[in-house]
Design goal:
295 residues, mainly beta, four-stranded antiparallel β-sheet
Length: 295
C-alpha cells in the first residue's frame, strides 16, 4: 500500500500481512514511490517514483532496481508468466499516455501497443489489464470524448467497447481463468463482465454492477484470483473533497514535494479539485496564502 509518512509528509510503500495483521515499510527514499503492482507469484513488486520505473523483491534489503529511467510511468499489470509488464507512459510529444509493454527478461526494450489512449498522464487515469493468456488487453481510453473500457488483442488495431456507462480511474482486473473482468463505472460502481476469448472475436456479457466504492482515488479496490472476494480502501478522513458544492475552500497543506521546474505535488486537507486518480488534468485553480498564490 502507498501511505503518507506523518513525520516527513512523503508517500512510502508498505506491506501488510493480512493473516498476521503486521505492516512493514518497504521503501525508505521518499521519492514519491507510488502505484505498486505485485508479480503473479507474489514475490516481486514494480512501482514508480519521480525518477524511474522500479522493480524490487520485498525480501531483498537492497534498493529497488531501475527498470526504465525517467518520470511519467504508471505500472498496470504483469503477464501471468511474470515475463512482461504492462504500463502507461506519458508521451512528451503528444501530451497523452501510450499503453506499453516491456519484457522483464532479455533486452527489456519497451513496445508501444496502443498510442494516445488517454489525456490523464501517469496518475492512473487510464487503467489497463492483461488477460491471463497474455493475448488480450482491457484498457481505458478517453479518445471518444468519454472515458470507456475497451478490449483489444495485444497485436492489431481492432477493439471492442466493454463499458456502457463510462469508466472511473480504477484498476481493471481479470479473473484468473480469463472468463470475467472487473472495472469501475463512471459512478464508481465496481462492475463485472463475462468474457469468452475462445476465438478471434471475443464474446462479451452485459455489465453487472456489484457495489459502489467509498474511496474515489485510483487503486481503491482489488479482487482475488477467483473473483469471489474484494479488497477496498477505506477513505482517508484527513483529506476531504468539497468540489461538488464549492469552488473554493479554506485548507491546509498536509504534505508536498518539489518536483522541479517550478512544479509541486501537494496533499490538501480540503480541496475543491476533483480527486479521482489524483486529480484531472483539466482541473485549474489557485492555492493562495495572504498575498502569494500558485496556479
Amino acid at each position: 500500500v502507498e501511505r503518507y509518512d506523518p513525520a516527513s509528509g512523503f508517500p512510502f510503500l508498505w506491506i501488510t500481512d493480512l493473516s498476521r495483521n503486521v505492516t512493514t515499510r518497504l521503501t525508505t527514499n521518499g521519492s514519491l514511490e507510488q502505484a505498486p503492482v505485485w508479480s503473479p507469484d507474489g514475490n516481486t513488486l514494480v512501482f514508480t517514483d519521480h525518477l524511474a520505473l522500479r522493480i524490487k523483491r520485498p525480501d531483498d534489503k537492497r534498493e529497488a532496481e531501475e527498470l526504465l529511467p525517467g518520470a511519467d510511468y504508471a505500472p498496470m499489470d504483469w503477464s501471468l508468466d511474470g515475463q512482461r509488464l504492462l504500463y502507461l507512459h506519458r508521451n512528451e510529444k503528444t501530451g497523452r499516455s501510450d499503453l506499453c509493454i516491456v519484457p522483464l527478461v532479455g533486452d527489456r526494450k519497451p513496445v508501444v501497443i496502443r498510442e494516445s489512449v488517454s489525456s490523464a498522464g501517469n496518475d492512473g487515469g487510464a487503467p489497463a489489464g492483461l488477460s491471463p493468456d497474455g493475448r488480450w488487453v482491457a484498457f481505458t481510453s478517453d479518445q471518444s470524448g468519454r472515458r470507456e473500457v475497451y478490449l483489444a488483442p495485444i497485436s492489431g488495431s481492432r477493439q471492442w467497447q466493454i463499458s456502457t456507462e463510462g469508466a472511473a480511474a480504477q484498476p481493471i482486473r481479470w479473473r484468473r481463468d480469463g472468463r470475467e473482468l472487473f472495472y469501475a463505472a463512471a459512478d464508481h460502481r465496481v462492475t463485472a463482465v463475462s468474457v469468452d476469448l475462445a476465438g478471434d472475436t471475443p464474446r462479451l456479457g452485459v455489465p453487472v454492477p456489484l457495489f459502489r466504492l467509498d474511496a474515489p482515488t485510483f487503486g481503491s479496490y482489488d479482487v482475488t484470483a477467483d473473483g469471489q472476494r474484494f479488497l477496498e480502501l477505506n477513505p482517508d478522513a484527513r483529506s476531504e473533497f468539497v468540489g461538488y458544492e464549492k469552488t473554493e475552500a479554506l485548507t491546509a497543506i498536509l504534505a508536498y514535494e518539489d518536483l522541479g521546474d517550478g512544479r509541486f505535488q501537494a496533499k490538501l486537507e480540503q480541496s475543491p479539485f476533483y480527486p479521482e486518480g489524483g486529480g484531472q488534468v483539466t482541473d485549474a485553480g489557485e492555492v493562495v496564502h495572504e498575498e502569494t498564490g500558485a496556479e
